[in-house]
Sequence to fold (140 residues):
Amino acid sequence: MLDAVTKKYIDASTEEQFAFSFFCDCCGKVVSTTPLTFRPGFKKKLFISKAERKAREMLWQKDHDAAYERANIEALKQLNRCVVCGAAICNDCTVECEETDGKTVCIDCAKKNRFKGMIWNDDNETFSVDFSTDQTKDGT
Ligand SMILES: [Zn+2]
Ligand SMILES: [Zn+2]
Fold:
């Protein structure tokens, strides 16, 4: 399986459903993806042989991996990549910096590098941030 787009993610898949949640690398905000129902197309049977069970498990695994890949792509659409550290970040943590020609930088890197830039909020409004003159001490 490929690496998840975010450092932290949860696989909440069950026998009937594939469900994945991802978390912003910067603030940890959850990024949900659409759950998919597992439709194996098997007849409902009371008794299944070992071989059949094995076949079902293999099919589940195959569909699970495909669903995982899809969920990663879906999560990535909701996230931005920091061009400095490569973190997958939500809009709240994304700064479009002057120093990177408007490419997205996570708020941590923007602070560390003392960049200037713009942040989009959920209402599609921008506000500018300027870390070049930020005198606040880094708590970490
Ligand atoms: Zn975030
Ligand atoms: Zn970064």
The pocket of zinc ion (ligand 2) is lined by residues 82, 84-85, 87, 105-106, 108-109 (CB under 6 Å).
